[in-house]
Amino acid sequence: MEKFGGIDVADANAGYLDQWARIGETDPESWWHSWEVNVRAAYHVIRFCVPHLITSAKTGTGNGSTGGHLILLSSVGAQLLSPTASDYQTSKHAINRLCEFVNLDHGTDGIKCFAIHPGGVATELGQNMPEETHAYLTDSPDLAAGFVVWLASGRADWAKGRYLSANWDVEELTSRKDEIIKDDLLVNRLRTKA
């Protein structure tokens, strides 16, 4: 890492999605493998990159920003409850909570962590979803790439610790900044009526 000047941005991008099945009919090894890849791999990226990202955040080695940006690949599936998707959707929901913990534990160290939905991209992994969902796989990989660049620029640091979607218009998202912060939106919370 010294050769390249450290780490300013890290992206936990590994993902696994097997064929969907009702939870009582799933293959236990495959079900747990989803968690191993989707959650444990993200944890390892977090655990071993955070010390370097803290250094980047404190020294300002990032190109035009303060560094210390950590992107965790979540999914819109984390917000859904779809039949036969228990392994994938629960593991991606856990990614959102991991993002919140990174913010809680290391936000004061300068880490800016985001859990993002990269859009509906027709990847090999996406093709494992049921056929009727394939019509939603219309986004280009460039969408997520551009969104991550925007996040790493520092212009969205106010949204750290939150679930965001690459499909969202960044100007509209930014225009709602005060509301999002005030009402603590885009995080996993149990809300009750007052």
- How many domains? 1
The total count of helices amounts to 5
Strand content: 5-15%
Terminal Cα span: 51 Å
Number of strands: 4
Unreliable stretches (pLDDT < 50, length at least 5) are none
Q: Rounded to an integer, what's the Rg over CA atoms?
A: 17 Å
Q: Superfamily at the CATH H level? A: NAD(P)-binding Rossmann-like Domain
Mean pLDDT: 87
Offer a few descriptive terms:
globular; 4 strands; 194 residues; Rossmann fold; four-stranded parallel β-sheet; alpha/beta
What report would you give on this structure?
The protein is of the alpha/beta class and 194 residues long. The protein has a single domain (2-182), classed as Rossmann fold (3-Layer(aba) Sandwich). Helix content is 40%, strand content 10%. It contains five helices and four strands; from the N terminus they run βαβαβαβαα. A four-stranded parallel beta sheet has the order 1-2-3-4, sandwiched between helices. β3 (112-117), α3 and β4 form a beta-alpha-beta unit. α1 (28-59) runs parallel beside α2. The chain is globular. 35% of the residues are buried. The model has no long low-confidence stretch (mean pLDDT 87).
